[in-house]
């Protein structure tokens, strides 16, 4: 398959599975040669859990790499573009081991849906926060005109590469190396797009929204399990309105953001140990589609991580070692096994009652308070929580 056919196949798949609609984003994706933005990409060669991990850097200039690289670039999955913070320009193809992947191009279905949500139009001033491989910047240049686009990243290696590769597409946006959360003070933008998850919406970026402007950013706690999409807009009168939408997938966490995980050892203990007690329950666990409940749980219960690889509901609290395992045992019956100082099952069921009383929301108003605080509130006002302060996030990152 050649790149033109691969692009067409990718867009067709996005239309089928992600609901990509006719319009400027679809047109841009059909014409954008991703192999020019990402002429090199990594493929993992080591097995899960193998140490040290190993990757091969594939190169478009090497004919033997092209078939596999073409599949990576247009297959729809994340594309791994940087290992261990290295420069992207001047790399030699071959194997890398140890360390980790430090930058990747986002899953294409997620990127396309967010780009459509931005509602890009010609002449708009766009701030792309988190340059990465330059895909968002390239689409914005195609739709809005490159003179109106600024792309910003804290990693100079990424901005250096993006500047060169975007110029190769005849796009010359303003490319800036700096703090994403600070944006460009004193400037105004019609669209602001943050391509990494944050603990709260950066206040500086909200200030940089122009009249009728829109900002998109994924908001998560330290847990990666239940994210939200923040949609922030400024009206003609200058008033800011915001919404948190519970979503299934989100960008990776930004630099320095604290994250909690279930280790492989912890997962095995949850799967095999008897726990403190098991009860037979007629209460169903919350459904996966109750994303508004899970989003509330992420913030109101805190410290919980779900094992999405488990067959049934499995949740752990890494900080204290508590866990929950729920398994169906016939019609309308579940075995609920818990362990540790937290009764996660009771916490979830109590919150489910509150969530249902609030109208089972999947979206929450995001309020920006005069003191700089941010608060998520259900439409009826009965379910709410505060997002962490900037100081709390900084302390968490340095802990």
Please name the defining characteristics of this protein.
12 helices, 399 residues, 3 domains, Rossmann fold, 5-stranded antiparallel beta sheet, 10-stranded mixed beta sheet, alpha+beta
Oligomer: single chain
Instruction: Note the gap between the termini.
Output: 49 Å
CATH topology of the largest domain: Rossmann fold
Q: Can you tell me the CATH architecture of the largest domain?
A: 3-Layer(aba) Sandwich
Task: Count the DSSP helices.
Answer: 12
Largest sheet: 10 strands, mixed
CATH class of the largest domain: Alpha Beta
Q: How would you name the CATH homologous superfamily of the largest domain?
A: Vaccinia Virus protein VP39
* Helicity, as a percent range: 25-40%
Question: Widest sheet: strand order?
Answer: 8-7-6-9-10-11-12-18-19-20
Descriptive notes:
This protein is α+β, with helices and mostly antiparallel strands and 399 residues long. The chain has 3 domains: 3-105, no CATH class; 108-246, Rossmann fold (3-Layer(aba) Sandwich), CATH 3.40.50.150; 264-357, no CATH class. It has 12 helices and 20 strands. The strands form 4 sheets. It has a 10-stranded mixed β-sheet with strand order 8-7-6-9-10-11-12-18-19-20. Strand 6 (126-129), helix 6 (135-144) and strand 7 form a beta-alpha-beta unit. Mean pLDDT is 94; it is low at 395-399. Keywords: Cytoplasm, Methyltransferase, S-adenosyl-L-methionine, Transferase. Pfam families: PCMT. It is found in: Cytoplasm. InterPro entries: PCMT, SAM-dependent_MTases_sf.
